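Margin note: ligand = fe (ii) ion.
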Amino acid sequence: MFTVLLVETNGAVIDALVKQLDEQIKAQVSVVPGLDQAKSFLTENQGKGVPDLVIVRAVLDEVPVAHGLLNFVYEQLNRPPVIVMGNVEFSGIEFNCLPDRFKISEFSKIVTKALHVSRKELEALHRPPYTGISIKNFYGMDKCECDVFIRISKKNCDDQYVKRLHTGDNFDAVTLQKYESMGLLEFYVRSDDLSLVLSAFEQKALKQLDEKCVVAELVQIGSHQFEVGQDLLLKLGVSDVTMRIVDTNIKVMTNALVSGVVAPHNFGELLKALLANKGGYNYKHSFLLAFLCSTIIPKMEWGKNDQMKSNIEKMIYVSFMHDIHLQEEKLVRIHSKSAFEMMALTPQEHELVEYHANKVSTLALSMPRIPAGVDIILRQHHGTTNGVGFADGASGSLSGLAILFIVVETFTHMLLDFQVLQLGPKAILKKMERDYTLASYRKVIDAMAEMLKV
Ligand SMILES: [Fe+2]
Ligand SMILES: [Fe+2]
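Resulting structure:
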């Protein structure tokens, strides 16, 4: 915790600054009314450690306080950083200056600068003591890396966290099912232990890279890890470890598609395995999208070798991420303006669907190492250039890869619904030929027909 010495007498200013320092850096603030008290405070605290920051008025109640205090600090062995509110001239030590009247945003910036706190340190300060992680993410693990808690919420009381599994305890799927059957969705870990848990998830994801398996197993393993990766990225945000888990997910998908385990000749087998898979619709349509995009790109004559590989990698990222904010199947299934308008949605669901392309594009921009251009395809994946809502019809003014994705996604949704629609791949493509008349869209349909040999 940061400690701050504030030299001030105006009650309103004290309230505003103490509130800001608490919100910004969780500081414990000592307030003194003048120079002598400030000197005594600093002298008394020399043994225990000086405050992390001193904030003082240049002139307080018509007394030039800052100059005297800077002089005093100059003579100390341990010199805390000083912020002066108002104009003062002093040479000998560096200090930070604010104008006499300042905005709270300026104050906040100068506090961060004076304390040299990084964004990461600020995030850590604001992290709640416990972090929730979906119980479903723990399937496939068998040992606790740290203590695991459940949260008990009571009206008018702070949440309580009760330890249910101890560090080193073994558990299995039956244990997890027992908690889920009680209606629990999340386990909690101490936020300080989060990196231990995430590393274990990462190890689990990495293990998949070595697993040689047939299509059905691959779909099964991929389904679990896909959901873990999406959930962690969404809930915990972009960090080194969540990015490593996402990258591993992408690598597993890429390996499966490039190694030939899943290839055009066993498309039927893949479809059967996906339909039989207990994972969510989001995973099924994303895996199918990744498969179809990566097998169609080589037929699009958009360059060879490295360029082709880079386009495939982009489309796998887009397939993985594009609907990440839509957790419910009914929302993922909305794929056209008419479906969006007809579906009965709550105002929150409506907003989520309307802005999800825009939102995920912004998320992609904050992710390091993501291939260039992925954010654009994500933003355009429902046909609008700003990522808001759904396009009225096919538009030619989108990126080529976005057009490919839109066409393939239309096919994917219809294929996964074939039991309702009673349309096979050939009939779906015929219908799409009628719906898409622009050459750039027809080219993708032709490539798909060629790949599927229909
Ligand atoms: Fe989608
Ligand atoms: Fe979408």
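The first helix runs from residue 11 to 25.
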